[in-house]
Task: structure prediction
Amino acid sequence: MRVVNWNIERRAPQSWQSVSLMEEIDELAPDVICLTEAWRQSAEPLGGFSISANGVAWSDQHPDERKVLLWSRQPWRNVQVVDGLEVTGSTVTGTTSFGETEVRFVGLCIPYHFANPLGQEPRAKLWSQHERFLQDLRPYLAQWREEGPVIVAGDFNRRIPRSWGPKRSYALLESAFHGYEIPTSGIIDEINDRTIDHVAFSANVKASRVIGRPAEAADGRRRSDHFGIVVDFEFI
Result:
């Protein structure tokens, strides 16, 4: 089972950047994709099935933009947009089948440290939206972990292990993801850098390989301000 996770920097579906990214993702032959800062139509060239969540607006955006989108080769069931998390970031979840195994996927976009809901005055304090999102996310992650295999992917807006930022907010991240493994921690070999776009998992699966994909196209032009993450899983 292959999962691709990529923040595509709000690139519109018809843009050369989005076309290039979707072509490369298609060549990677994923079973499930998580796109953050995407559009409702971003994964349409791949066929399959998409679910998405609008998320909070931090700046002016097109009505078709989505903070997070999940795509699968197989239909989604038990789809839920977590309304309580839409006020600070975004989360969408659903289950899909791999043979006889039903796996829950969670796509999320955790607020960055400067995040402020569009038009809110006075502005939110630094890291406050990030921390509130993690506090609100924690009980959901605990519940999903108890229900069976779960894989979480998206933009965490934090390197793991911590390299900067408040210790308090990092402790909230660790607390929220208690019981989960995060194989995207540390240096991603192909990129020789650390990522803020992570994949976490719990129960009955294990990560067998983590691969980084460059943000630049073959001609050197930048497609996104994030590089891509590919994680291969096995059932245990």
